[in-house]
Amino acid sequence: MGSSPEAPSPSPSATLARQFSLDDPTSQWVIVNKHRPLKPADYVPADLVRPAVAISAAGEAALLNSTTAAAAEAMFAAAGRDGVAMVLASGYRSYTTQVTTYNGYVAARGQADADTASARPGHSEHQTGWAFDIGDGGGACSFQPCFADQPAATWAKANANRFGFVVRYPWMLHPITGYYYEPWHLRYVGVEAATDMLNRGIGTLEEYFGLEAAPGYP
């Protein structure tokens, strides 16, 4: 039975959502947040590589999964052609490392405040290999709110979609994402989805894929 002209067409997000799993950590659309832990919790990507970009991170933090690494190489090169020095400041983070990172925040700030700044182990996008933090070539404002005004951040906000990336934790959307603005945290979702989100003015993956907000842990 053919659809009538009046029948609403599916939204782009609904159409795209059928392409990749939102649950499989090997999927570029896996959604990891405070309501959606990684399964398994100690997941390790099988294809971690060191991208050929400027890197300030060391050890495992210099690694990304192979798809993200290739996209990052293309994006960093394009930024460089525009005169913007972009640096990989933090990539893959294992479950064990996240335990240490999170516990450090808890010790310094208390658990309630730590949960706004650091993911609990098994709930971090960094563990998937699909996400990384960028720095500016000059090293200014690393992991601070003022980074939003640095050339690397402004360039990424305007251009990252062309390479398949979104700013995962946008300004003022922490009631949905569970995290305050992180202009340095980029997440690979593919060019099609990233561009569709930008064109439609959708700021979070939760909204884009029709998932519930995840401001806090259940």
From TrEMBL:
Pfam families: VanY. Residues 63-190 form the D-alanyl-D-alanine carboxypeptidase-like core domain. Gene3D superfamilies: 3.30.1380.10. It comes from the Bacteria. This is D-alanyl-D-alanine carboxypeptidase-like core domain-containing protein.
